[in-house]
Design a protein that fits this description.
single chain; 253 residues; alpha/beta; 9-stranded mixed beta sheet
């Protein structure tokens, strides 16, 4: 049995607001593949700790015969699999049988995360049967914009986490096995009925309020489109060299 198994679970057009089955159109799927190739794959490939695997969670109705090989090929050297979203609970329960500590981390196919994020999560094994960890501070960027803006004022006020949330689980405790970040509203993990059903002494919740950890990418392929929070426009910036080094993607070139 492994000491750590770290699964990065990526929702790929599984549910996008009120778009419904529109996400199954060739236009949306092809744009999603393009975004995943440009953002997710290089930012995960940039991680200093390579001890993780990637599971792309796809819409239950997606034609896997047409797209599974394409999705896997885009992953390059990443250890990548494709699972239907409605089968993920079963997948996680099986994974828990293979390691003493199971980390399930949530990120979207179009977002960026800092290069030490995997290592940072794995440092927190053993702190609680269920340790919920993630980042509050980061940046927002609209495609083709020439600046990346700070994005954390609103999240800090609400006290919740954003991109790269993790459920860090001790698999010898059956009460916590099966919990993962898609079991809770990403803004309020502790209010999830799944989390509240667990004894409080088995759960620890730690949002990271200090690390500028992610880039939230805005584009036309999501239900919110190019909505861009006005409250970040006049705050701190990153230059292109810093973005490439920290997040692995040259998005300002």
């Amino acid at each position: 049995m492994n000491k750590i198994r770290h699964i990065i679970a990526v929702r790929f057009l599984c549910f996008e607001g009120n778009l419904g089955d529109k996400v199954l159109s060739k236009e949306y799927i092809h744009m999603g593949l393009h975004l995943m190739s440009n953002y997710l794959v290089p930012t995960l490939d940039n991680q200093t700790n390579k001890n993780f695997e990637v599971v792309i969670l796809v819409h239950p109705k997606l034609n896997l015969g047409a797209y599974k090989k394409k999705i896997i090929s885009l992953g390059g050297t990443l250890n990548l699999d494709v699972v239907r979203f409605n089968k993920f609970d079963e997948y996680i329960k099986d994974a828990a049988k293979t390691a003493e500590n199971l980390i399930i981390t949530r990120i979207d196919y179009d977002d960026l995360v800092w290069d030490g994020a995997v290592a940072d999560a794995q440092k927190r094994i053993g702190l609680a049967p269920l340790y919920i960890y993630g980042y509050n501070r980061g940046y927002a960027w609209k495609e083709d914009d020439d600046k990346i803006m700070a994005f954390y004022q609103e999240y800090k006020k609400r006290g919740h986490m954003s991109i790269f949330q993790s459920a860090i689980i001790q698999t010898n405790d059956p009460d916590v096995v099966g919990i993962h970040p898609y079991k809770w509203n990403h803004t309020k993990p502790m209010e999830s009925p799944h989390v509240q059903a667990i004894s409080k002494d088995k759960v620890k919740y730690e949002p990271n309020y200090t690390k500028d950890a992610f880039v939230w990418v805005r584009h036309e392929n999501t239900s919110s489109g190019l909505i861009f929070p006005g409250y970040v426009r006049n705050k701190a910036y990153l230059d292109k060299d810093a973005v490439k080094q920290i997040f692995g993607v040259a998005i300002l070139d």
